[in-house]
Amino acid sequence: MRLRLLAVWMLTTGTAAAQNLKVTVRSDRQPLVYACVYVNGKAAAITDTLGIALLPEGEWEAGDTLSASYVGTMPDRQVIDGRIGRSGECELVLQEMYTLTAEEVTVKADIEKLFRKNVREVSACIDGLWGEARLEAYATMEFADADSSRHRVEGWITTHRNEVSPRNYNDYNYRLTIKARPPFDSMQTELLREINDLLRWTTAPAHHFQERDLQGVTRQIGYLGKRDGCRIFRITFPTIRLWWLSEASLFIRIVARIDERTKLLRSVESEYLSADMELSVKLRADYVPYRLSAGWGTGRICMVPLTVDYRASRNGRLMEGTLSRSRFVSPKRIRKPEDLYVPYMPQAK
Hints:
Layout: H1 2-15, E1 20-26, E2 36-39, E3 42-46, E4 52-56, E5 65-69, E6 73-74, E7 76-79, H2 82-87, E8 89-93, E9 95-96, H3 102-105, H4 111-118, E10 123-124, E11 134-144, E12 150-159, E13 176-179, H5 186-208, E14 213-214, E15 217-218, E16 220-227, E17 230-241, E18 249-259, E19 265-274, E20 279-291, E21 301-314, E22 317-329, E23 340-342
Parallel strand pairs: 1-8, 10-21
Antiparallel strand pairs: 1-4, 2-3, 2-5, 5-7, 6-9, 11-12, 11-22, 12-13, 13-23, 14-15, 16-17, 17-18, 18-19, 19-20, 20-21, 21-22
């Protein structure tokens, strides 16, 4: 018992003098810019252009677990011990999931040109345009509240954005029909609202990966090579402001897999993180193409989410959801009497 207390005392006193903890995040190739650093699983800092993040005194202590994530890499973690505390420095190395061949290395000189040559412009939507189609999919969503009780809803959903009155096609909130097992309580209503957010976030990377500029901020783009018939690009945006998130600033990181044959988006791995660390969204999605046949977008290729894995942290609450077995269905399809119809409800401020 004395030895254990002595070890704890040495660990804590060894970190007492540290003001900041310098965390360096890199891959096996280079520093990782705008990587997210976590303390005990909670977002705590973003690395700068040198791949360095500073954790102020009071935001970490001996025994905490440091970790980092960056799309397209394997995460790394370390426990803060006496050595790290005394030195005030820690390095996390994230292994790249994709490796360039010797031939592919030569194309890195002009990645923008390579991107434009191999990526076809697409749209992303849930209900086509002018309500010409609805997305039908099997959805799940769950979270744990303050007392660790788990709340979950699952079932077949169908979107009905074209039924919103007055029609507002710039509004990304969807009415949902869901077949869910009773009882249907207020918590499940909140979970349905989160499914709505899942749908909105699924369209975001399909738009953002092909944008050169967002709100005046220029993207940074990297080429990660080929795999399974796809060219793989990593797109990063430094902190930007998006109108649909009010005054929040976001860091955006996307790995997009582009089909070599069709030049269409096949899948994404994306991460969105607010500058205040209160919002974090990680999303993996596979897409299928759908050609629009109505409205001013006639003939345009739209990417429809086929499967989605969703993980969002908002103000300390963690939400996790999935979407699977998706398909577009005719808007003329009539709801069955036993379907539960959930109208759009404004999000909680």
